[in-house]
Amino acid sequence: MSKSPEEEFPQKAFGWAARDTSGHLSPFKFSRRATGEDDVTFKVMYCGICHSDLHSLKNEWGFSTYPMVPGHEIVGIVTEVGQKVSKFKVGDKVGVGCMVGACHSCDNCSNDLENYCPKMILTYNATYYDGSKTQGGYSDVMVAAERYVVKIPDNLPLDAGAPLLCAGITVYSPLKYYGLSEPGKHVGVVGLGGLGHVAVKFAKAFGVKVTVISTSPAKEKEAIEHLGADSFLVSRNQEQMQAAMSTMDGIIDTVSALHPLLPLIGLLKPHGKLVMVGAPDKPMELPIFPLLMGRKMVAGSAIGGMKETQEMIDFAGKHNITADVEVIPMDYVNTAMERLAKADVRYRFVIDIANTLPKTA
Ligand SMILES: [Zn+2]
Ligand SMILES: [Zn+2]
């Protein structure tokens, strides 16, 4: 007979889990493996709430298993390291993002692209090497292999830094890979939410010209005055869109709802790239003719490898880039999920795990 989640492993853990597709989160006692020779164990201080958490909790992508402790923007303080761990010591500020394992022998892994390994192991709602179920950061303690842990620069606040581990790398990696981080380039950012607002910050730090493209005219002031975007387009305003045709080297599209791609492709210069980082749950219509006529590209991107994730967070430290966050107590999480579903957050919820989770035990 298999042991209960509480007795499966030696390290006691406490978090909030969903038990079924209602996605409702409630207190959950479980356990984590002992600190292995390559492992880093840390006390979780904060965990960001990513839109993927909401999709996963409600099984909207169809592969959820329960009980599920979500959370893949996890930051904390190291409490124990294995004998072979060389990069971290007790007391370090660290983080774990969307993945905790991969095969380490394929081409992707050899090239520091664990995120594209066919055997990549997600931080939660996946099966670890030992057959156990991975559980995320809405919990008091985390254990992860050193390779999947990043060092958080001292000057970055842990709460506002947490979302960089998913939202940050999700936009940083395509800006770099698709050549959109070179000064002088003009980059569009579609959607001003959790991903979009950090995309604007990274792009500005790279020295590129940034235009935010949004359905909501009300976001113009915020985009320009607060986030530092150079210009703003209301996607429903034909005149504005027409005037901006063929001006952008690339676009980072963060919107996960269905939306027309043709106007965005029109904004690209010849050879421009439209990079999708949001994940609509239905296929979208892709007009081909305008792609041919400008040798344009529609592409995708998913987080980044661990080497690049460390590079991203070091860059964020150097340029003081953090997410704009609303820090919440653990017992507010179900309300936060309802608000997130309505995009009612500027721009990321972060759970104050260390101060508020124990009180819910
Ligand atoms: Zn995420
Ligand atoms: Zn691999």
From TrEMBL:
GO terms for molecular function: oxidoreductase activity, acting on the CH-OH group of donors, NAD or NADP as acceptor; zinc ion binding. Gene3D superfamilies: Medium-chain alcohol dehydrogenases, catalytic domain (3.90.180.10), NAD(P)-binding Rossmann-like Domain (3.40.50.720). InterPro entries: ADH-like_C, ADH-like_N, ADH_Zn_CS, CAD-like, ER, GroES-like_sf, NAD(P)-bd_dom_sf. It comes from the Eukaryota. It holds the Pfam family ADH_N. GO terms for biological process: lignin biosynthetic process. Its cofactor is Zn(2+). Keywords: Metal-binding, Oxidoreductase, Zinc. Residues 23-351 form the Enoyl reductase (ER) domain. CDD domains: CAD1. Belongs to the zinc-containing alcohol dehydrogenase family. PANTHER family: ALDEHYDE REDUCTASE. This is Alcohol dehydrogenase superfamily.
